[in-house]
């Protein structure tokens, strides 16, 4: 008689434990799927039990979503989340010398599953006769702005503005500048200088002239941390995942299995012939069929 009672008690305990765990990793019904005009797909979520882990928690304030895990002086407003690209676009502050500062530190993404995207962003400098650069420890990227020429320009070729690629796996940087001597009576080193990392596509749409903005869109790459990846139970028949090395690794193209010991996080996509959310524990990636044209009559 004792054994059945113990088994029953064990089942009750396991059932209670399961009810605590499952909502924390499931895109369950009742969770908000958007904030304002921004869709919030799983593994991101708004409210307890609606996101995979704390890194993907989003707070909705005044119809604007913010990345809760990066909770510091730099509040990252979420502008877009892409499952296909495993990217997120956020509002990020601009360094402007006219506010009296000599440098500006980025949002600190260290130890998180987020990186400043090397392919989606560029370093941009605007002003006259100065070196625009970002730096963190031994990582450096920079470009040089030459003399000011009045008039509109639809390109950034080093005159009054400059651009440069940023390093891979960048999670923290300081934006600053070094002025050079004045060589033109029409320019002074007192002019405002702008230095910032920015989404390249957005800047091109602005014709390389962002104006006097305090924030600009920046692309973050993201993936699921190894510590949480096992909670997803990815369907390998409909989805595939690749692992992303950490910032100290030189193997940027290393691929893919959940047993890897060097992966920092995982990025997943639906296989060819499937579409949907590979991270969704309920629906996941669903097959779709292509519509064939009607046969041509002889």
Automatic annotation (TrEMBL):
Q: Which organism is it from?
A: Acer yangbiense
Give membrane topology per the record: Single-pass type I membrane protein
**Subcellular location, principal:** membrane
Q: Which PANTHER family does the UniProt record give?
A: OSJNBA0016N04.9 PROTEIN
- Spell out the protein name for this chain: Wall-associated receptor kinase galacturonan-binding domain-containing protein
Question: Which stretch is the leader sequence?
Answer: 1-26
Instruction: Describe the location of the Wall-associated receptor kinase domain by residue ranges.
Output: 154-215
- Supply the Pfam families for this chain: GUB_WAK_bind, WAK
Where is this gene product found? Membrane
Where's the Wall-associated receptor kinase galacturonan-binding domain? 31-91
Give the keywords, sorted: Disulfide bond, Glycoprotein, Kinase, Membrane, Serine/threonine-protein kinase, Signal, Transferase, Transmembrane, Transmembrane helix
List, in alphabetical order, the Gene Ontology terms for molecular function in this entry.
Answer: polysaccharide binding; protein serine/threonine kinase activity
Its cellular-component GO annotations read: membrane
């Amino acid at each position: 008689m004792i054994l059945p009672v113990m088994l029953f008690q064990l089942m009750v305990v396991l059932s209670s434990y399961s009810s605590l765990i499952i909502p924390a990793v499931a895109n369950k019904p009742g969770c908000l799927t958007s904030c304002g005009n921004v869709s919030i797909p799983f593994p991101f979520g708004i409210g307890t039990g609606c996101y995979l882990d704390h890194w993907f928690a989003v707070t909705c304030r005044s119809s604007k979503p913010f990345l809760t895990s990066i909770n510091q002086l730099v509040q990252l407003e979420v502008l877009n989340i892409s499952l296909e690209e495993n990217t997120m676009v956020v509002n990020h502050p601009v360094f402007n010398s006219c506010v009296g500062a000599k440098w500006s530190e980025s949002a600190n993404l260290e130890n998180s599953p987020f990186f400043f995207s090397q392919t989606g962003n560029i370093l941009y400098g605007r002003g006259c006769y100065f070196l625009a650069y970002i730096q963190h420890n031994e990582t450096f990227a920079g470009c040089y702005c030459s003399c000011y020429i009045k008039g509109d320009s639809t390109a950034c070729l080093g005159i009054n503005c400059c651009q440069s690629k940023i390093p891979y796996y960048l999670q923290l940087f300081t934006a600053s500048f070094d002025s050079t001597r004045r060589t033109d009576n029409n320019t002074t080193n007192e002019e405002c200088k702008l230095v910032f990392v920015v989404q390249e596509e957005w800047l091109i749409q602005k014709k390389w002239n962002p104006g006097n903005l305090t924030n600009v869109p920046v692309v973050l790459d993201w993936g699921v941390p190894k510590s949480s990846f096992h909670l997803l139970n990815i369907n390998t028949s409909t989805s595939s995942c690749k692992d992303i090395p950490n910032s100290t690794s030189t193997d940027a193209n290393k691929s893919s299995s959940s047993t890897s010991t060097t992966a920092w996080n995982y990025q997943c996509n639906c296989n060819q012939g499937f579409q949907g959310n590979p991270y969704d524990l309920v629906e996941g990636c669903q097959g779709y069929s292509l519509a064939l044209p009607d046969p041509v009559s002889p």
